[in-house]
Amino acid sequence: MRRLKWNGLLFSLACMVTPCAVLAATITSNATLAQLEADDQADRTPGSGSIDWAVVAQRDAGRREKVMGLLRAGEIRTASDYFNAALIFQHGDAVEDTQLAFAWATTASRLDPTNADARVLTAQAWDRILVKAGKPQWYGTQFSRDKATGKWAIAPTDPNAVTEAQREAMGLPTLAQTRAHLDAMNAKQK
User: Fold this and answer.
1) pTM (2 d.p.)
2) Rounded Cα gap, residues 16 and 99, in angstroms
3) Is 144 helix (H, G, I), strand (E, B) or coil?
4) What is the mean pLDDT of residues 39-50?
5) I need a surface site. Which of 3, 76, 105, 123 has the fewest CB within 10 A?
6) 8 A C-beta contact, residue 85 and residue 35
7) pLDDT one-digit tens code per residue, 86-110
8) Residue 56 domain-assigned?
9) Does residue 57 register a pLDDT over 60?
10) How far apart are CA 110 and CA 91, in angstroms?
11) How far apart, in whole angstroms, are the C-alpha atoms of residue 128 and residue 40?
């Protein structure tokens, strides 16, 4: 009798879980959101020296509005959707945009732990939030070009916030590798 109850419980659980598994397998990523992300990246392809940032800023704002419409309509459902939305919002001006990028990149990396790009974007968004707040970043992903010298420099970084192993686990280079990369970029400018 006990065996029947246990088997009945397993059968009941299987019946409850199976529809969810079938439903999850049928959910596809949002094609509109994927196109918005592709457009976002295309606007940045020529390189920062030849981009009309005033035009791109207007396009970015329009994309963020469209993403919010998709969110309100319940059309952001997959790890890929959350990643695409995060990347678009990472390019927003307001700290709230970057906070959404962080939340959505984190969601994407939790829904799909194999998505290395989502882990990287999570770290980049977190660093950007800190830099915008006037605090040292953790991972060392944010840098800028000095207008007077034209040289690239890493934003202040808290060396004790995360370890190099934690940076690498997020898919990031070490701080020494990042500094060497910036030095190489600066050397090419001479």
Assistant:
1) 0.82
2) 35
3) strand
4) 83
5) 3
6) no
7) 999 999 999 999 999 999 999 999 9
8) yes
9) yes
10) 22
11) 18
* Domains held by the chain: number: 1
Mean per-residue pLDDT of the chain: 88
Q: CB of 136 within 8 A of CB of 156? A: yes
Amino acid 150: pLDDT? 87
Distance CA 172, CA 169 (A): 7
Contacts by residues 136-145 (CB-CB < 8 Å, ≥ 24 positions apart): 136/161, 137/161, 138/162, 139/167, 139/170, 139/172, 140/167, 140/172, 140/175, 140/178, 141/172, 141/178, 143/178, 143/182, 145/48
**Residue range 160-189: average pLDDT?**
93
In a domain, 3, yes or no: no
- Asked if 83 and 121 count as a contact pair (C-beta separation under 8 A), the reply is yes
- What range does the domain containing 122 cover? 29-188
CATH number at residue 134: 1.25.40
Please determine, for residue 152, whether its predicted confidence score (pLDDT) is greater than 60.
yes
Any domain includes 101: yes
Residue with tokens 């020296």: 49
